[in-house]
Amino acid sequence: xxxxxxxxxxxFLTALVAGGLxxxxxxxxxxxxxxxxxxxxxxKVYARPLELFAGAxxxxxxxxxxxxxxxxxxxxxxxxxxQVARNRNRFEVHTRGFAFPxxxxxxxxxxxxxxxxxVKGLTAGGKRVDLMRLDPVQIGGIYPSxxxxxxxxRLDDVPETLRQGLLAVEDHRFYQHWGFSLVGIARAAFSNxxxxxxxxxxxxxxxxxxxxxYLTPERTLxxxxxxxxxxxxxELHYDKDQILxxxxxxxxxxxxxxxxxxxxxxxxRHYFDTPLEQLGLHQQALLVGMIKGPSLxxxxxxxxxxxxxxxxxxxxxxxxxxxxxEHATVARAMPLGLNSKQRIRDSFPAFLGLVRRxxxxxxxxxxxxxxGLSIFTSFDPLLQxxxxxxxxxxxxxxxxxxxxxxxxxxxxxxxxxxxxxxxGRKASYAGFNRAxxxxxxxxxxxxxxVYLAALEQSRKYSLATPLRDTPVxxxxxxxxxxxxxxxxxxxxxxxxxxxxxxxxxxxATARLGMDLGLETVVDMLARLGIEREVPxxxxxxxxxxxxxxMDMAALYQTIAAGGFRMPLRSIRDIVDAHGEPLKRxxxxxxxxxxxxxxxxxxxxxxxxxxxGTGRGVYRYLSDDFEVAGKTGTTNNGRDSWFAGFxxxxxxxxxxxxxxxxxxxxxxxxxxxxxxxxxMARASTRSxxxxxxxxxxxxxxxxxxxxxxxxxxxxxxxLPFIAGSEPRQSTNCSPRKSGIKDWxxxxxxxxx
Length: 751
Description:
single chain, Penicillin-binding protein 1b fold, 6-stranded mixed β-sheet, 5-stranded mixed β-sheet
């Protein structure tokens, strides 16, 4: 008997010690993680803010679209943030305000007047507004591995009816108990029995929070006891308002693909496209009701069931004295009021892929999805919408069967910012990103690098230098002969340098590249922005190698920017979870190519679209709208390319098959159409002309390249680097010409 008693005592003491140690462990787990853990906050990715000022180019429909994707609600008279009233070209907008890096845009009522595709004026409170920015569109996020997303909200910013309604349904005695409630368990059982449905649960809010934070969802006695103990410990260390605020931000309220919706603030945005503080009573009750079964009562999938649940919650709120019967009657009569607008977030996987790729150079993947970063990008929703429309329109015309794919990169070449990106024919498909990862031969898209390398050697080459477009054989590595051919299978004899590029003659280009030397061409490609290894083979001069549309955008970016190399970037600023700036990505540039040589190349690229392989562009553009560009076609028509720029935008388009099969398209019959369709609707500024120092113009004979005079047969005005003009003259006496003549005859003959 004594031995048994001693054994029992030892067992009791052992259990007591073990229990004490376990209690200490649970207490340490709570105190060490609750405040710091809180939440893994996803990074939020924003588009560029729309800047408004008098004279800014903006159509009424474009402004309406921007406000729509921002979730502004149409009303007769805007009285609260996020509302807009439109009367044709007049918009009265109550802006939300936004904390931008370094400054805050205030919330205010602004009258925006448009006329002729431009902002006519901005007024607020009867006073002129010189400059304002709308809040930026959130286009996506970078989420933790488990996909949680939330928008943090302080308890003070939660509507009182939502707060009290939550307590009435989930934990009426929240402010009276110590983490668990026997009274609550009994009350929940009674309420459920009376209603015939589950309207209340036995677990307190504190217990639910502990379960969500620390425990598994399994239903066992041990887990339940652990939950109760941890709830008591949590209440010992933290006050009720802290716990309630944490619950409001933590509670799970639905799923959108791989993204899980946590917290009332994000749920308000997701289901109603409305800030939490602006929710109506009927909307608050719906969110509270969804806690018991976010999938079961999802109003997007089960609207009737969600409506019944909402009305039951309203009844519970009346019984607990949160609202009056009259308010409940009005709320029951309201529709669900769900967000039916276009969901723009996470609709641009190709651009978000570019953002992630650039972020990984400086941040760990796990930090991107947990630190609550705000990432401000150069993404332009208006340009994205147009390039998607242009891609769809052209591709449906070219290939109704859907076998061909397309990708386009759009940049603002004066800043090096990527403004829009299409990674495939179906822009919303989050699969293979062809704009970044489809590496294909570039064909004639590389030829400008060869000609630019020549034009830098001004003592030897000019736009008027005759090139031999005749058959050529080059012995490559291994003793194999490389014998290129022109697209038309013809040789054209002696042709002027600018025309050889405009007509995309392979024989002339290959001879020019061999005269320059492969290393010279390789060096030029590197200076223009090609960072990947290129094959040092003769076929490089005609586009051999593997390049993505982004690679080509980098190359043409330097050309369009006048020889200034600017690393293509998608990110402007990064701000931490507290609104403090972390990093800025300012404009960086370095002159890598002669300004004068690039100027001459611009002339030749203008000639491509005026009289060469790219002249089909002017089926889309007005004749007085100047652009420059180059077509590209690879062997057997496997790849169709076009790259070009106007006065404000650069775009590179590609069409091909994923299996590398033939397309039956050239650069002019395929990718050019996507480019032209887009530019005709998106670009607002023609490519201007400014002759740099060190350039002079001369009349030359367009056949021989000799100096001639204005009015002479086959005369054409060409720009030259000073001292590189031809030495020989025709019998028609040349005379000096002025800049006026340059404009008049930039692209044609004067016969």
